[in-house]
Amino acid sequence: MTLDHTHDPAARSWLASANAPGCDFPIQNLPFAVLRRRGSGEAFRGAVAIGDQALDLAALAGTGLAQGAAADALALAAQPALNAFMAAGPEAWRTLRHALFALLLGGAADESAVRACLLPLDAVEYTLPARVGDYTDFYTSIDHARNAIRIIMPNAEVTPNFRWLPQAYHGRASTLGVSGQQFHRPHGQVRPPGASAPVFQPCAALDYECELGLWIGPGNPAGQPIPMGQAEDQLFGITLLNDWSARDIQMWEMAPLGPFHAKNFATTVSPWIVTAEALAPFRVAWTRAEGEPQPLAYLDSAANRAQGAIDIRLEVWLETDQARQQGRGPARLSATSFRHQYWTAAQMITHHAAGGCSLQPGDLLGSGTISGPGPGEAGALLELAHGGQKPVDVGGGEQRGFLQDGDTVILHGWCERKGAMRIGFGECRGLVLPAVQA
User: Fold this and answer.
1) Is 340 a catalytic residue?
2) For a disulfide at 426, which of 81, 210, 272, 287, Cβ 3.0-4.6 Å?
3) Which of these is catalytic: 144, 340, 352, 412?
């Protein structure tokens, strides 16, 4: 990942809100979503965030301001789903980024025409940014894995294969939803402590998982691997992702296979995809701690070691129904960074395709729960509340061991460092509704 003029922290947009301190969407970001005016019934179309506005790419295409390859890329990005744009690959992504940057830069000659294509962010509604053919959820945080297993067995260690491959399971694309998703508490089989037989009942140990979603670009033919040197070209961008989890159901059904009812009822993603290009200034070295095994050759490269990790900072907030009614607002539960992950995005992509699997444009890969090594860096209530045994304070005299009906979980993400403009991911919000009567 190389830096260019679109990463210049001194660059400013003619749109004042894009230059405000703490803004998620400065001109150096330019993330993509699919949206329309709220309640309008209009067709959904691609858009780019800038300040407190969304640049309607369909309207922009109609102005004729983009020419040549930029116009071709713009036409793809303006569609009701971003799959065709994702499939076009890094050169098309970069070409459109540069064209949009030029149109939004302070002093641009066509400001008035572009300004006419803006929609206020507080007046739009979103849909999933792409048609997701397949969704895979990884398990790649060694801190999360250790925290989870040691709740049951205090001196236990992660399974040996965790240190040799990015573990994953196939998720359910049909229940993916965009931020604002509301879902009912799931039912499933649970075996109560000491019982010899399970019962079928609503989940009593509902949890969130703070993750990132990796959006796949061009993909690969079946049987053709994606070498580490090409894996980054497959990464269109990254979004926030909440992998809701029914822990009591999960504990019963996961032996010997992976989760099923415990995970397939809802997964929420943020609407904005921050492109891999925008994340270039926040790449950091990927390392393995002393004594940890080094990856096999197909999962290793000099580039991955030099800048395979990404310092994406993450926070989890919880707003209870009582807090909402009392106007207290949400309480922060934890904060961490994606840089702690045991496996990188490139390693996840390479391993996914290594067995012959064909990735397709718009496929979504979950990073797995992101937890860090320090106190307060856990990415799930399972860890924070020690399996529900040590409930955490959420303000107003309330505690949570696991989620209750009416709880809203909010994920925030951003990148910042000295010498670069802060960029944000927006938010990923989901609301727990009561179980449907069986």
Assistant:
1) no
2) 272
3) 144
